[in-house]
Structures are given as C-alpha cells and as structure tokens.
Design goal:
Immunoglobulin-like; 5-stranded antiparallel sheet; disordered N terminus; 968 residues
C-alpha cells in the first residue's frame, strides 16, 4: 500500500481510538534531519531525526510518537520514493520550556550515487502559532527535509550536527538570539540562509506554508536599544538568528537552511524548523559579551574565560555546546568547559580548556557556543511566574599546522644540468596522508604572515613546484626542467598540507578542505651570473655625424668553454629591432681586461636614440657557439615637454633592463658664460619606470657645484642634458648604482617655435569580416593598426610652423596609462610620411596620439587621442563527451577565443547546485567537479562572465548563459 494512504488510514484509526479531547493532539515544535555515512564500500548512511515536542498541548501524542517514517527520493521528486521506518531511540529528554527531545534513527543504503532528499512528515504542529497558516496551525503537519550528495569521493562524509536545541524563550521588548551551534566534523564550510516553513507535498517534496516574518506579524516595534523599527535577521556566516525585539507574546515558527560546502560545491543542506516562544517577562535577560575568534598553532593549550552577568542579580546557569567535546566528532584530546560558581547570582564565570593537537588541524573553524540562562533569585516574589531568559555568544577556533623549519638548499650535479637540493627538518605533525608542498618565486622578499590565513597567500608571486609525503625532508629542483635562470634570485618556501578530518588518502580530493601550516622561513637562492649583463648606455657626445655612446657590461660570474666572445648589436630608436652587429670582442674572461666596454662612434645622437644588445658565445667542441643574449638597453632620450610661459619643459625616457624608477635623476643646463660647460641645476625624484619630467624656470636648485641662475626669456635657446640613476637591485651586479647621460638638447622657450598638433585618424575595424574568418583570431601577434594624420596650416587663426622634420607616434595600451613613444617617422624626407602601421599586435585595443617635431627639436602638443577596442569572439558548444577518447573530452570555446582578458565560468546541475567553476579563459571543463568527482551524464546550465580586452583596464564585461549536454 502506498505510504501516504497507509499512514492516513493509520492516523484515522489512532484518532478514533484516542480519548475525547485528544483527537487533535498536537506536539511538534521543531526539528531537523542529519546523516552520516557508515561505509566506504557502500553508500550506507545513518539517518537521524531530532524532534522537539510541545508537552503543554500534546504530551500524550508526543509520548506515543515511537517511530517516524523517512521518505527518500531524488531532489526533484520525480522518482519513485522509498519509505524507511525509524524507531525512537530512548530516552526522551526534557530540555525545559515544556519541551522534550525525541531522537529517531534508521540505517539506509542508497541505490546509487546522486542527489537525494530525505524528508519527514508527521501530524501535527502545535496550536496557536501566530505567523504561519492556514489556521488552525494544529491542523498542519510538520515537515522538514535534508538533501545529500551521495558520492564515494566525499569519503565518510557527515552532515553538520546542530548542537544547540532550538527552544528558548524570547521576551517582549528584549533582544532575542538563537544559534544552532552547527558543527561539521569533516571541516566542510557552513553557511546559513532563511527558509519558509513547509508542510508535506507529494513524493517527498515540501509545500510552503502561509508565512510572515515574525517581525511583521506583530505591530511595528523598536529594538531593545530604542531604535525603530525592530529587526529580524540571520547571519549567513555564523548562523546567529537575532530578533531585536518582539512586540507580541505567543508562538512563532521560522525555518533556516544549514548549507554544507566543499571545494566550492554545495554537497548538502539541512532545513531546521524551529519555534520561538515570546513571553511577557518580569525580568531582564542575562548578558554574554562577544568573544574574539582565535587562530592557534596545533599543540596550543586554549584557556578561554567566559563571564556572564545579570543586572537583576538572578541565578545564572552557564553551559556550552560544541563538537570539540564529542569523541565521535573529533579525535582526543577533547575540550572541557567548567563553571566553578554555577548557579551564582548576578555573575558566573566559565573556563573553556582545549589542548589542541596535530589531529585537530583543518581549514574550517571549530565553533564553540556558550549559553547563559537565568533563574529566580531567592528574593523573587513568585518563582512560578518567573520566565527564564537566555543569551548566547560563540567563537571560532582555527587550528593551523606548525611552521616547517630548517629549509636550505645546495647545488648538486645532475645529467640534465645543475639541480638544487632542498632540505628541511623533520616536520612536527606526522599525519597520515599529509604532504609538504614546495613553492618557488623569483625575487627574494619578505612574506606577510597571517596566522588566520596559513599557507602561501594568493598574489605573492609564489608557484607550487612539487609535493612530497609529510615524512620526507628533501626535494630536488631541476635547473633545466624548471627553467631556473642564471643571475636570478629565487625564493623557496614550504607548507604542510593536511587531509580533511576522517578522510582517507585513497579518497579523491582528500586534501581539499584540509588545513595548512604557516609558510616556512624563506630560503633565498642566488644563482651565479652565467651571462654578461649590460650596465651602461651613456651618451658621451651629441652630434649629427660624430655622436658617441659608451656601452658597458659585466662579465659572467661563471666561466666555461674558454675562449669566449661578445658580439655587440645596435638598432636605431629606443624600441629599435633592426639590429646590426657593430663589434666582435674576444675574451678569456681575465679579471681587469678591457673587454667589457665599447665606444660606439660616428652616430647621429642629436636626432636618434639607439638600442643595444649583447650576444655571448662560448667554446663548445672547439667552436664558438652562442650561449645566450642579454636583454636590450637603450640610450637616454631627452625631449622638450610642455611648460608654463618663461619655463622650459623637459622629459626623458630610457628603455633598459635595470630600474630607473624611485631614484633621483640629475638635470644639467649649459652655462652660457662658459660654452660647453654644464652646471647641475636640479635633482629630480622620479617614480615612473620610463618617462620623467622637469620644468626649468631658470633657478639653479643644486648649489654644490655653484649656483648659476638665468632668466628664461622668449626666443632664447637653452641647452640641457640629464643623467639617469638606476640599479638592477641585485647584489651580484656591480656597480650597484648605474649612471647614464642623455644627448644634449637645445630648445627655445618661445611658443611660436613649437609646431602645431597633427589631426589623427585610425582606420575602422571591420568586425563582420574578421568574424567570418575566425582562424585569424588564432594568430597571437598578427594584428595591425593603420594610423594616418594631417598637419594643419593654421590652428586658432595662428600659422603653424611649416618646418616640421619628424612625427612621433605614441601608444598606450590602456586609457589613462602614460603613452610611450613607439615610432619616429622621418622618411621620406620630402614630403614627410603621414601614416604609420603598428604591426605585430596581439590585440587591436589601445590608444594613440601623434606629435610634430620642428627643426629646433621642439615638439608639438599631442594630437587628438584615438582609442580602439577589439572585435571579441567567444562561442561555446552545447555538447561535450568526457569519455577519455581524446575527442571532444573537454568543454571549451570553439575556434580561438578572441581577446579574453579574464572570465569566471560556473556550471550548475538541474537542481541549481554549483558543480564546477573556473577562471581558465579556455574553461577546459573535463566533466568533473573541482574536487575531481565525475558528474553524471545530463544537461547542465552555465553562466560565464567575460572581460574582453579593450582600451580600458577593467575590460568590457559581457555575461553569457546557456546549457550544455554532457554525454558519456
């Protein structure tokens, strides 16, 4: 016989045989369903209903409730339900406030993996509940449900248990707080949200009752402190339900969901339906002050004092609830809570003691709840009229692993090249299945330590390069295999990773949700320089035909394959790439030999900047063989910049591998009384990495070499040079401070000599044509922007200087960035070219302007700035088949996703549960959860937020939603 019909018949028989007056006996106040897996080899679970019964209106019915029936079905209610009888487990516990607690337990083996709903429906709720309907409430059945994700990858998973009974008295006009005291023994994350109380529907589903927020059921009131209106809320993080404050006495039922999360996926949720009993109280509630959450290293003894007070001098009972007291939920040692003066009037003090151990390390916190209830003092006139009130507070304890110690490294010989052996001390916490993770970063630096966020913080520059078992004390990092570069400082740190409590190393993703240790102290590895490094590109003389630049470098720290050779190359322009070899310099790397300097002569340093690189050759099998080449380094280019009247504006740039920022550069002006002599007039503190500026008003601001002030006047010419100051910030490179001069620039302060700004246009993009050929998007650096401009004859009725000798093209990848000079257009000589192709681009997006330069070297104001965005393309399929045949095994964009700056992808199953998320721009979803669990075949829904590369730094946001069929 189907369960609903059978139980309706049984209920009718019970009602007909019950004594008169008990036909509509009522009893259910509150309850919830919890579960725990009992076996790794089969999906067998213990399922428990904890019910709370009204002993005022229905004690007989509550006592006769010796069993309940669980309905088990899929979460949509579309399957064939199963019905499992669960007997009551004695004893019946009186928890006060005319309420008893009954516990019912059944053991059930699920048919297969998947998402299931477990529910209970029982007649009936207690009567006169004010905020639910339809009335009368004693005609409504009581219904709660819990959903579980059944999957062997979750190991012996347990739902959270709610340690605090859901029945406390609330007082009219006083703040009420309830916390369920949820504790997850597996260390999964817990979150909370409000829910509407339900009654039973069909096939295990629930139906929402007529429901009003308790705060809206009563007339508008005010908080305990007098603010208006009163409030009712739940804290999504810690589960505090606060009603501040009730107005009308009576019964109120509310429901909330306790969500269980692991690896970003919702794996279960519990509905607790609870009752709040509001009374007129002739006393004030006791008070428990908030406690600060703490983070402690495993092995720490926690000694927390808890003090509760009552301003009426009532007798106080202080209790605590937590999984830390329960050996079925955590490994010993267990915590204890003692109250030396229990029952004292006005104030009681409790002591929470917990000797933490390595077995307690986990990512999730341990919650501890404290509750104080008052009772009548000996002077209370009529104890039978006293209404007990309560207050609660809680705090969280995070237990992290001890910091690994003794990390150091040494170079060892390996067939693939040089390798580096890391060693460390044996780790304190030898937990089965735990690992040591090894991290590496370029650049040795301090790491900000936060004990409440152990491990390596995101964005710190470290990447994980390997893992070893927790009992290991060594790791070999290969130079060739891992790409360590000579001359670079590398930082190593190690972190201990722990499994989830109760997880087996054979469980997929057993480390997910486990704890971590603090990161070890740093071991800094300074690899010797195996390559020369350019240190100077300084202009010695300025001329159109006899300019001279001195290039310097330092020799490698390691010498192999002698004799060796340096080959120096030069290109015109700071960004020049058309390199020509200008010197072969043989060397035996003899200390003190003049083989690390070259003077480049016969240059046009007045019109051009120059870019240099050095190739290094060593002897291999008797032949000179290229070993490597340096990064390029340009000369310093000084130019005129906009300035106020009677001032000369200067700006300079240098594209070099060392850091010229955050230094003090030097500005020199020629002393007209001593032609050819330059006097330092200013030291400029600069911050930017490339372009620096200064305005000379004629004042000599540097007195150490004598003060030479001038008056800047119109149409006079002034000559300048600058000296940059920089460093590699690497102790292996000497000298540590690098000085380089620009060319000499002679300019006028007169605005009349400045050319007019050009008028720039940018050829439009044909996005439709590009999208018709999606293969074009697969070339990462094959795009070109075509710029054209015109030079005006007049601007504002004023003639423009016709003697323009060059145009300069500036580019900024993003709006608001400082543009950089990317080209100087000087050919053909007559007329000047007025177009430029910016080639080899990975993106069309960017901003441009153009300036004109006259015969004096004066530069115009910028042209109009023109910015361009991309033609984004991002198309997703609607089916993929992750069956391991290497065909369509991953869900990823079709063709080549174009110009994707970043994205966030989320996939949901048909019940709305998040099953997968990623920020990989290619998505690469393999049909598993983030924890490595295979998902069932079926239809999944996705939403993806994409930021396409554009001329704005934040990108252009686009949202897409759709579905995909997963086939196996």
């Amino acid at each position: 016989m189907p369960k609903p019909l059978f139980f309706r018949i049984l209920t009718a028989i019970l009602m007909l045989t019950a004594p008169f007056g008990q036909v509509f006996a009522t009893h259910f106040r509150a309850g919830e369903i919890t579960a725990r897996r009992l076996s790794l080899s089969s999906p067998t679970y213990e399922i428990k209903l904890t019910g709370y019964f009204d002993m005022v209106s229905g004690p007989d019915a509550a006592n006769r409730q010796d069993q309940v029936v669980f309905t088990i079905n899929n979460t949509t209610g579309t399957g064939e339900p199963e019905f499992i009888t669960a007997p009551r487990i004695p004893p019946i516990v009186d928890i006060g406030n005319n309420t008893t607690q009954n516990v019912y337990i059944a053991v059930y083996t699920f048919r297969t993996t998947g998402a299931y709903r477990i529910s209970v429906e029982e007649d009936a709720r207690n009567q006169s509940v004010l905020n639910i309907g339809p009335k009368p409430t004693n005609s409504l059945n009581f219904y709660v449900s819990t959903t579980l994700e059944i999957n062997a990858a979750f190991g012996l998973n347990r739902t959270p248990v709610l340690r605090n009974a859901p029945i406390d008295l609330a007082a009219v006009g006083q703040r009420y707080i309830h916390n369920p005291g949820a504790f997850d023994a597996d260390g999964d994350s817990i979150a909370y949200r409000m829910f509407v109380p339900q009654r039973a529907g069909t096939n295990g589903l629930g139906m929402n009752l007529e429901y009003n927020d308790p705060n809206l059921t009563t007339p508008p009131g005010q908080t305990e402190a007098g603010a208006s209106p009163a409030t009712f809320s739940i804290n999504r993080i810690n589960g505090d339900i606060i009603w501040d404050a009730p107005v009308t006495k009576g019964y109120y039922n509310v429901a909330f969901v306790v969500e269980e999360w692991r690896d970003g996926a919702l794996i279960g949720q519990i509905v607790r339906d609870m009752q709040i009993i509001v009374v007129d109280a002739r006393n004030d509630r006791p008070v428990l002050p908030p406690l600060q959450d703490i983070c402690v290293e495993a092995g720490t003894l926690i000694n927390q004092k808890v003090v509760a007070t009552d301003k009426n001098g009532d007798k106080l009972t202080l209790t605590s609830a937590s999984g830390t007291y329960d050996a079925t939920l955590i490994k010993p040692p267990l915590a204890t809570f003692t109250v030396a003066n229990q029952g004292a009037q006005g104030s009681v003090t409790g002591t929470f003691l917990w000797q933490t151990s390595c077995d307690h390390i986990r990512m999730g916190p341990y919650g501890v709840l404290f509750k104080v209830e008052d009772g009548p003092s000996p002077t209370f006139p009529n104890p039978s009229l006293f209404r007990k009130l309560a207050d609660m507070t809680s705090f969280n304890i995070r237990v992290y692993g001890p910091k690994p110690t003794g990390l150091k490294g040494t170079a060892v010989s390996d067939p693939t090249g040089t390798a580096y052996r890391l060693n460390w001390d044996a780790y304190k916490c030898q937990i089965a299945g735990a690992k040591i993770a090894i991290y590496r970063a370029e650049r040795c630096t301090d790491l900000q330590e936060d004990v409440c966020r152990p491990g390596i913080p995101a964005g710190s520059g470290y990447e994980e390069i390997g893992r070893v078992d927790i009992n290991q004390t060594t790791f070999l990092d290969y130079n060739g295999g891992e790409g360590l570069r000579a001359g670079v400082s590398y930082s190593y740190r190690i972190v201990a990773l722990f499994p989830r409590p109760g997880a087996s190393p054979t469980d997929p993703g057993y480390l997910i949700g486990g704890g971590e240790s603090l990161a070890s102290a740093e071991y800094c590895l300074n690899l010797p320089l195996a390559m020369p490094v350019i240190t100077n590109v300084t202009i010695d003389s300025t001329s159109t035909t006899r300019g001279q630049i001195t290039v310097k470098w330092i020799r490698p720290a390691t010498a192999t394959g002698l004799p060796a050779q340096y080959r120096l190359y030069r290109a015109t322009g700071q960004n020049g790439t058309a390199f020509t070899k200008i010197a072969d310099i043989n060397t035996n790397l003899t200390p003190g030999a003049a083989d690390t300097l070259f003077v480049d002569k016969g240059l046009n340093t007045e019109a051009n900047a120059y870019n240099y690189k050095l190739e290094y050759y060593t002897t291999v099998n008797g032949q000179l063989t290229k070993f490597d080449e340096t990064e390029t380094a340009s000369s310093v280019r000084l130019e005129q910049a906009a300035a106020q009247p009677n001032q000369v504006g200067l700006k300079w740039t240098a594209l070099v591998p060392w850091d010229n920022g955050n230094r003090v550069h030097r500005v020199y002006r020629e002393d007209k009384t001593k032609p050819g002599t330059f006097n330092r007039i200013a030291e400029v503190a600069v911050k930017g990495p490339q372009t620096f500026v200064y305005s000379d008003d004629g004042t000599d601001k540097y007195a150490a070499d004598g003060t030479v002030n001038v008056t800047i006047v119109k149409d006079s010419t002034y000559c300048y040079k600058v000296e940059t100051v920089g460093s590699y910030n690497n102790s292996q490179i000497k000298p540590s401070v690098l000085y380089n001069f620009s060319q000499i620039l002679c300019v006028s302060s007169s605005d009349t000599t400045r050319p007019c700004p050009p008028v720039l246009t940018l050829d439009p993009l044909n996005c439709d044509s590009l999208r018709a050929h999606p293969e074009a998007f697969c070339t990462p650096s094959g795009f070109t922007n075509h710029l054209t401009w015109e030079y005006p004859a007049q601007v504002g009725g004023k003639d423009c200087d016709p003697l323009v000798t060059a145009y300069r093209v500036y580019y900024a990848r993003y709006e608001g960035d400082s543009p950089i000079l990317i080209a100087t257009v000087t050919t053909p000589p007559s007329p000047l070219q007025t177009s430029f192709d910016h080639t080899g681009l990975a993106s069309f997006a960017g901003c441009y302007y153009v300036t004109a330069v006259n015969r004096f070297g004066s530069e115009s104001a910028p042209s109009n700035t023109v910015c361009r965005d991309n033609c984004p393309m991002f198309v997703l399929p609607n089916v993929f088949t992750p069956n391991g045949d290497n065909k369509n095994d991953t869900f990823q964009p079709l063709e080549c996703p174009a110009f994707v700056q970043s994205l966030e992808f989320k996939a949901y199953n048909r019940w709305g549960a998040l099953v997968y998320s990623t920020k990989d721009v290619n998505i690469n979803w393999d049909g598993k959860t983030n924890g490595g669990k295979d998902l069932a075949a079926g239809q999944y829904y996705y939403e993806v937020t994409i930021y396409f590369e554009s001329s704005k730094k934040q990108g252009t946001e686009t949202s897409m939603k759709g579905w995909v069929q997963l086939l196996r």
